[in-house]
Amino acid sequence: MLTSLLRAFLRPYRRPITILVVLLVAQTVGNLYLPNLNADIINNGVITGKLHYILSTGLVMIAITVLVGICAVVAVYFASRIGMGAGADIREAVFTRVQSFSARDMNRFGTASLITRNTNDIQQIQLFLQMALTMMVIAPIMCVGGIILAIHEGAQLSTLLLVAVPVMAVFIGIVMVRVIPQFRSMQLKIDRINEVLREQITGVRVIRAFVRNDSEAQRFAVANEDLTNTALRVNRVFALMLPTMMMILNLSSVAVLWFGGRLVSEGSMPIGNLTAFLTYILQILLSVMMAVMVAILLPRAAASAERVQEVLLTVPVVSDPAQPVRPSLASGVVTFDGVSFEYPGSERPVVEELSFTFEPGQTSAIIGGTGSGKTTLLNLIPRFFDATRGYVLVNGVDVREQAQESLWASLGIVPQAAYLFSGTVASNLRFGRPEASDEELWRALEIAQAKDFVAAMPGALEAPIDQGGTNVSGGQRQRLSIARALVKQPSVYLFDDCFSALDAATDARLRAALKEGTRNAAVVIVAQRVSTIMQAERIIVLDDGRIVGLGTHQELVKSCAPYREIVVSQLGEGAAK
Amino acid sequence: MSMGGPMGGVRGGAQPPRRSKDLRGTTRRLFGRLRPERVKLALALVLGVTSVAFMVSGPQILGSATNVLFNGIVGKRLAPGTTKAQAIHLLRAHGGNQIATMISGMKITPGVGVNIDELGRVLGLCALVYLAGAAFNYFQGFTMAGVTQRVMSGLRRDVEEKLSRLPLRYFDSHSHGDVLSRVTNDIDNLTTTIQQGLSQLITSILTIVGVMGMMFWISPLLALVCVVTIPLALVVTYFIAKRSQVQFARQWKRTGTLNGLVEETHTGHELVQVFGRSEATVAEFHVQNAKLYEASFRAQFLSGIIQPSMQFISNTNYVVIAVLGGYRVASGLLSLGAVTAFIQYSRQFTMPITQIASQMNMLQSGVASAERVFEFLDAGEETLDVDGDTPVAVEARATGHVTLSHVRFRYEPEEPLIEDFSLDVKAGETVAIVGPTGAGKTTIVNLLVRFYEIDAGHILLGGVDYRDLTRDEVRRAYAMVLQDTWMFAGSIRDNIRYGRPEASDDEVVEAAKAAHVDSFVRALPEGYATLLDQDASNLSSGQKQLLTIARAFLANQNVLILDEATSNVDTRTEVLIQEAMTSLRKGRTSFVIAHRLSTIHDANVIIVMDKGRIVEQGSHDALMAARGLYFDLYNSQFAGIAT
Asked: Got the DSSP string for B156-218?
């Protein structure tokens, strides 16, 4: 997964990657050549006392150093361009792909998961790419080059590498295998502590009301002790890591001098080569360390790549028809004709055999218990889901035959959980119609009973709104969300139980104004509160996905038992007469 | 619609580094917290110094091994049987002036090869020194791990204790997110800093000092080369690090912006689609993404060139030492071993310098976190209560009689709120509190359970003044069902038992039955042992409400506080909740924040609140006759019925 993802997204960077590799090879070769020159200085200059040779070789070394430096800086430039560029490309590809997802696709992944895939996962891949682009190129060259040169300096002595390299790799491997799960368990324990603290903050009222401070303190003490013990263990194991690696490096040097020293004294190896060999063995071991570090990042990056690929390879389940039909009338008629919907593989449909029509200029209401299918019914209209049987027609044309953009243009939606976007009050209201004038915004606010509080906000229409709308109260957020739909002036309004956050008086005023403001459109209201929908021209009572009552309040109170039951429970026996 | 509600903060990435306001003060205070560990810290320091001393002497010993070799090689070439002085004389006579000069400074015996025994001795010593260095380094890390974990554990404990001593006012006036971030993220950040930063910083500084010392000892002249390069390396690192830090801050900021955009677009996905904003959003993303790319490229590039720059300086240093050292050896002023040792040293100081740069950065953000934690620890506390339960309190609670007399309370001293409020609630009576959303109905609750202290007047429980009781004694009188259906991560059984931990399993089931929640709980695969997650997101809000009622049933106190709010609850569950609340109220003194007409009707007293204040007070009939706010509220609930 990681390779196919990287192959696809690195393709545009083929040329910079080629340049990068060339630069890194040059840099590494240069770095490997320096000790060689140093050996020459000792063998040919120092021992024979040729000062001139020392100086001229020294100048060559300086020149190489400068070249290596330039190569390195330019390489970092390209590595950053490629790494960050490919990261940005992947991020954009994922974002664009998600934009084309239908509700079904969104549900399959879950919003939170998609956000993580679009942010953290890509950051992981980017981090890996950045490391891999430099270290993954340098480490093998340095390792192989180092080995070749080491053999060149002293073939016999190079057998030492057969011991030192595996010891290093195995040691790092063991520590990593042991420490990484421990780190994970430590993270879990940090999460646990944070969970307890979070509960103490959010539940402060309940804890104090039930006088449970002591037991909370006890719970925390247990979690704290647990974390402290684990952290102590992990850090003590980890404390072993650096000293041991340094020890392996250093003891390798000692071994080189011991075995090399014998070779030198036998005369089978010049002494200058020994010094160079020392440097090479250090470089080989360092490259092994580097490779292992990158290898550690690999599983995480691979897991992230898989999660990202999954998004990129998803084909949206709802797509536009080849030849979209444009409805001739735009007046706001919604017709359900024998509509059923069931999730694939489920035993029974969520809604079944729904047939009715929402007319322009009329208010229709849907009421029923949790799981009765109210929201599913609404979701079939904007094609968040497609009916599995029957037809849903908006303005006379099957929704599946319309282009999604044009279908959506005729709908105004107010979801159950009001959601605002960061920006200003005005930018939120103009969400569906950017060209709306200020007067139109104020009119919509007036209908939504939001005029007073918006006027009182500092900056009024230009007052800032935080992401999600968290800086206004739930009721205000709901009213702004209603106003947003009003500004769009669609021919069909879908209100999904969005009046529940309002107090009864505001609810009543809003509904009265709404009647005026949506004169020619079809209005569909899903509600829990009977008082919200009593005046609707048509009330649909849903139970278990089926229509058990259809009519006005008066008719239903008389004829529909489930409806009567709801009315009595909410308004008392008197209201049902 | 199928959007399940806005997602909580799924912020990607870590936080940007923050700067502290009072670096010196906070650092001093942080060190103050290390005081109890000073013995161990001193030990760690001694271990660190010892370790560095060993590690630093390694190359020097390796160098003398090289000398043994070199001496042997050179000595072998000279005629055997002559003395060193004779050999030098002979060389000069044959025009080998250069070599003669070099040999004059060496410890050689002409004609004798490499002394393998001596080489073995020297290398054996070297291996021991390295082993000892590694061992001491490990002991230092081991000791420091204990020190930091104990200090951080203590800090976490203090923070938790602080939480329980803070007045409710603090929680109401600070966002939960901010408090949470101080007690979790900041503590985590601080732990990492102290754990990694402190220990490494000490080692890095010691290493630089040790390496410099050794260099001067071997050859003051060559060391002078490093006296130029080390500060140069420091300056370059500092200079680049400072610039890249600016870019990193920009990168974090833009990552935040972009992640925010991703978060809100994906969360409001269907709105974006239906309101026809997909294209505009993708365009916006493109702009933000390009900005992030630019900043992160710069940050990566700048921080990336630190390494090559260090390498360049180190390589230059290496070459200069090789050349100068070669000259010195050839002139007989320095041994070859000294030069090789020197080269090793010069390679050792670049790493600690780059490390110090990153550790300084880390420390800075750690100190900023420490500051935020200390700020939290410094917040004003509630006056401390004595533990225990007096007989007076037990007796007072048994009465279920609550009296408020001339109570005055203000959240803000200059904003009048409740000025002179009196109410006598006898055992078994019901008080309804009504008013529009945001009218401040919870203020009364806050005062009754003493979340806030009244400014003047008296609240009496069974005739005993609150001030003569501890907060806990007062609170034990009340069972509460709040709108905030808080559950902790644990089993359903433990959550119900929260109000009375000593209750038996049977009593839990009984309470659940009374709250109409038993059958639903039994339907779950794990029954009462079902674990709830942090937000109890596996329960609907109606089910959570029923569980809190069961909790109140089990707590079985004489005075009840009920918040009836039932938004987002389906009609059937609502009926259950209503029935459960009615049976809970039987025989108990109740304060009900009412939303339903049936409750209001039979309440003994109705308190009508608006904009934080009590505007009306009386029975249903009296208030209806007064035709005030209550009259309006009441009618609006029935609006439409008449038509």
From this structure: HHHHHHHHHHS-HHHHHHS-HHHHHHIIIIIHHHHHHIIIIIIHHHHHHHHHHHHHHHHHHHH
